[in-house]
Amino acid sequence: MKLDSIKSALLASYETDGGINHLDGVNLPSQESVNEIARDCMHLLFPGYFEERRLAKKDVPGLVDTLLKRIGTRLEVEVEKSLRFSKDPHPGTHARAVTMEVLGKLPELRKAIRTDVEAAYRGDPAARSNEEIIMAYPCVLAISLQRFAHELYELKVPILPRMITEFGHERTGIDIHPGARIGTHFFIDHGTGVVIGETATIGSHVKLYQGVTLGAKSFEVDNQGNPVKGVKRHPDIGDNVTIYAHATILGGDTYIGANSVVGGNVWLLESVPANSIAYFKSDDLIIRPRQRKEVLVGYIEDWVI
Amino acid sequence: MKLDSIKSALLASYETDGGINHLDGVNLPSQESVNEIARDCMHLLFPGYFEERRLAKKDVPGLVDTLLKRIGTRLEVEVEKSLRFSKDPHPGTHARAVTMEVLGKLPELRKAIRTDVEAAYRGDPAARSNEEIIMAYPCVLAISLQRFAHELYELKVPILPRMITEFGHERTGIDIHPGARIGTHFFIDHGTGVVIGETATIGSHVKLYQGVTLGAKSFEVDNQGNPVKGVKRHPDIGDNVTIYAHATILGGDTYIGANSVVGGNVWLLESVPANSIAYFKSDDLIIRPRQRKEVLVGYIEDWVI
Amino acid sequence: MKLDSIKSALLASYETDGGINHLDGVNLPSQESVNEIARDCMHLLFPGYFEERRLAKKDVPGLVDTLLKRIGTRLEVEVEKSLRFSKDPHPGTHARAVTMEVLGKLPELRKAIRTDVEAAYRGDPAARSNEEIIMAYPCVLAISLQRFAHELYELKVPILPRMITEFGHERTGIDIHPGARIGTHFFIDHGTGVVIGETATIGSHVKLYQGVTLGAKSFEVDNQGNPVKGVKRHPDIGDNVTIYAHATILGGDTYIGANSVVGGNVWLLESVPANSIAYFKSDDLIIRPRQRKEVLVGYIEDWVI
């Protein structure tokens, strides 16, 4: 009885509170397919690393054949759904073309991704081998999938690229929008909490630590109060820049010049010239003995200034 | 042989080092059931989004029926276990009542969650459609499950609500305690590292960025040195407030007034009046050329002041 | 056709762009086995918590038997692969010895982990029971697996320990290197974004909040430009220290003295004496009314100084 009335109320709410229903609409990309595409993609990019058994060279052509066909089939289906969603007049034909173009980029992507692994090895004394990096550094998954999703983004496929980078975000805490343009030798150490916005650009040999944000500081809205989409609003980062943990750098006209270093926990809304170092004055930091009441028993004043 | 002695030592340690054993006690909630409840809940809240196939309107009543019965059955079992754990004298009867009451809130929860999706669309220029938000924005999962878990929390169900929000935390990096009271149109962009404490309250049209903490600064302990539970210790956030990345706002008497903006990376232990802006002085930021020794070959002085 | 040429190009790229291929090499540890080892390990450490059904005391010896044998078998295989990778001359014999030694540490690890749960209960007013902590606090998984992986690290097993802690990092956002040495009663609240480096040491009764970094500030490179591995480069934290959210503490000669408190969002490159408190001057924080242009309609100046 009771469950029946809850059911009726829910069905009624589907009628009155639309906007979060998706009924009788075009088919949306399948999360499960996105997951499989992402996993297969990592296998193709790093042969021999993620297989359960040792991969002999003679078995590689067969594996590549299987993986390519599987990704190709799935990707075409999901791209077609996405294009249908954005009212593409020829979703089927375009989906096939997009799929082939993106898969054709894989060898080139491998070249870039190889430089990322190299950058991790050179950038972290804790990294003892390429194998350790590929199997246990979260940036490898996040950056590789972003590079793949970026190709779909460039070909104007909606929704799907963001679902692919979100697969990486969920597993690594690294949130790179598929729109971001990233140079070679890119290393993100640890990575949790890193956010790189849609219109950010990043040079080569850039190193970020956990929690770094390349974000927007403000944005235009139209006369309905909705944000204008697609405007440049995230920073540009030059070559050889290192940015320490939890630095927050905002704005579409903010530029960090080549060879510069940005300190951790900095809140930066302005540009930094090349060959510079940016940090908060250390004399603003106070270190002093704790007062008696700060260690009183019965009431823990963990934090009292 | 060796394994046998390890086994004996472990069994002995179960006897001597209690506190992390749970043997012969009441049955605790099952993580697998919590996972299934959380997933089914998202399906009920967002029909047509997370199904593998396109959902036709005519198939919705059947789907709702199936989902409601499945959640109802599982939830009742897990609530009963939780109530037994807190020594409820009538866990069976109460579990049934609690389950029905919480499921009955679903249509109302959908109304609030719909405003959250709307706030994401209006709050992020990168969001191109509601579909993209629902399928690829982590805040949707984290906030929706918190709103659901909050209903269980209000009905004094122990453990289970926290397991449900932790399902969201694990997948999104957004940690909202089920106790927090949250208004409509709530948007968390990116979200990784956001922490919202048990006794926090949040007005409507609030926007948080990644890494924002609404936390406690100190707490009372009883004469055994254990913290006194249930005391107000987290901030209150007014309507239309925006808080930038990694701002840390602490204290139960800290209030951020309506229409105010808090800058990123701020460490804030005091209240902010309405219509204000709070940030660290930019003249404390030093930007200067790197010194020669900072770019010495052979020893990378990534960071030298 | 087209797919065939992509396949050829990929196969060619495997030849020319090595370094991220692993073909015909030694077998690397299996991610799936690592996952199973991690899960079984949590069952052994916390009997009665993660079983789907209530665990009766009389069934414990049988369960321990099954779990120990399963972990033992898997661990030996994965340790052997790892040792083969680092060219151990007797990987089989050593793998067996290492496995037995590490499993033999489990009772001792339980003693330490029990103190961690106790510290969480005493450190967080939101924690209502040990059960809630074990089942819903992410630090329990992250710290327990790090303590386990640390034993493998101490026995010079490559890659595998890092894969085990990465299992925890992926699920909790807490990234503790297996090399870190950690005292008893360790509590990390919320945890997302915490990073603890390889050569960090942590005393007993230490409490960290989300986003705390114990990292490196610079490192030596050899004459090929590769970082010198294994050098002390992360901080030492004394007993009874509390470090608030998003504090970034860097450097191998940085020491936080016993009983000290470090404020949130602090960027700290120097040592702090015992019984101290370290924070940024609050008079650097500006709180002032928003200006008219900051709330202009038509252009949201979310952030304008």
Structure summarized in a few sentences:
3 copies of one chain form a homotrimer. Chain A is α/β, with parallel strands linked by helices. Chain A contains 8 helices and 17 strands.
Mind explaining what this structure looks like?
Three copies of one chain form a homotrimer. In chain A, the strands form three sheets. Chain A has a five-stranded parallel beta sheet. Chain A has a five-stranded parallel beta sheet with strand order 3-6-10-13-15. Chain A has a four-stranded parallel beta sheet with strand order 2-5-9-12, with no helix packed on it. Chain A is of the alpha/beta class and 305 residues long. Chain A folds into two domains: 24-172, Orthogonal Bundle (serine acetyltransferase, domain 1), CATH 1.10.3130; 193-305, Hexapeptide repeat proteins (UDP N-Acetylglucosamine Acyltransferase, domain 1, 3 Solenoid), CATH 2.160.10.10. Chain A has helices at 2-16, 31-45, 60-85, 91-104, 106-123, 130-136, 138-154, 160-172, and strands at 175-176, 181-182, 187-189, 195-196, 201-202, 207-209, 213-215, 219-220, 236-237, 242-243, 248-250, 255-256, 261-262, 267-268, 276-280, 285-289, 299-300. Chains in contact: A-B, A-C, B-C.
Element-level helix/strand string of chain A: HHHHHHHHEEEEEEEEEEEEEEEEE
Strand ordering within the main sheet of chain A: 1-4-7-11-14
CATH class of the largest domain in chain A: Mainly Alpha
User: What is the helical fraction of chain A, as a range of percent?
Assistant: 40-55%
